[in-house]
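re: ur question from earlier - yeah i can do the single chain one, its not a big deal. heres the input i used so u can compare w yours
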Amino acid sequence: MREIGHFIGGERVAGTSGRTADVFNPATGEVQAKVALADVSEIRAAVENAKAAQVKWAATNPQRRARVFFKFVDLLNQHMDELATLLSSEHGKTVEDSKGDIVRGLEVCEFVCGIPHLQKGEFTEGAGPQIDMYSMRQPVGVGAGITPFNFPAMIPMWMFAPAIACGNAFILKPSERDPSVPLRLAELMIEAGLPAGVLNVVNGDKAAVDAILTDPDIGAVSFVGSTPIARYVYGTAAMNGKRAQCFGGAKNHMIIMPDADMDQAVNALMGAGYGSAGERCMAISVAVPVGEETANRLVEKLTPKIESLRIGPYTDEKADMGPLVTKEAYARVNSLIGKGVEEGAKLVVDGRGFKLQGYENGFFVGGTLFDNVTPEMEIYKTEIFGPVLSVVRAHSYEEALSLPMKHEYGNGVAIYTRDGDAARDFASRINIGMIGINVPIPVPLAYHSFGGWKASSFGDLNQHGTDSIKFWTRTKTITARWPSGIKDGAEFVMPVMK
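and the output i got, formated as tokens:
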């Protein structure tokens, strides 16, 4: 049985806590590895290594820090097939989908290659008599990231790339469900020239999370996961004097206007709803057609496409989607489908009971489609995180707009229309963080920021883009005066510019 440990001080180390968790092959349901679960002492060892390495790394000029990421990007491209296959073997998503996971992380690494410019401060000459003012952006010291299972390459890179580029050292606590790729990324960072100790990867569960949140030497924490845990991490980090950005759950809607290109909208829903088996925080899980005729056309076109989805293991190059990540996820999604039936939604396509020859014990759920879903139903309110799409029929644009506006989550939303006025009004009024206009999954590119509103996000600064540079640095402002003569006597009033 393969054993997976940690990456501390520039090398792989075995776990010492004596606790482990199973890592499954989602396609077969079999345990393929044991991952060590860190205790407080192991987190502390990682922090000590990070502290020791950070001072010298912060003093390294930004051009040389950037060169590490130039080399790292090159290594990611060289090892793309290896990384994607490793990722798929533990997550279950198709290899092409895994490559997309890696590339979206790689793009943030490309963005931080511009750190010499991004980390510049500001300067004002002559702010007052013989007074100049300037600011610096300096690293927070040691940062930490707690990442989910669904993007084991992308989200770690979204966190550690800007943090390390800014001169911080970093502790990464990835999901224990698919831990191998984050460890491999750390090895490639060392190969790219990163000094040992600047990036440490420690696997673990809640005990490791709590150790991170209470460690006095960790100054900032980034988290992605469910909303209840995001609230917990944000609150605990704040109580322990840390800055935090915490991203939670989602229930992303797509509004389909009567004038939309229906074939385009249907294809978008297929990819956005069923890609990666729906295990994406930006997946579209609610379709909102406006008008009965629009709804009927939508369901009529969706149904055969969902029924013909090719579902298989990651080794099937023609598969559209793979299994869910764990048996618990499989049971939860099946239970919520049953709940939807109980609540009176029309089950148009039932993905329960899907079996694949040779993979009967895999965690597969077929594509599922509900019609006539209402906002009172649990399947509408809950983030299912599986291949389940709900159709909520709206009689008007205003009714369609109100649905995502009233939902507790505010991660992403999309509208499909040919009407520029409707699209502009939608973008202006909607209370959601990321909006797609004829774009189903509006994940911004690396030089813009990623983040939701409402219960989808806690904290003032988003991931990647310039927000990430602000989050992983502290501003220091200097007021300097070089007088040519010395004035006698002290002034006791508040200084002002005369």
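The chain has 16 helices and 23 strands. not sure if urs matches, ping me
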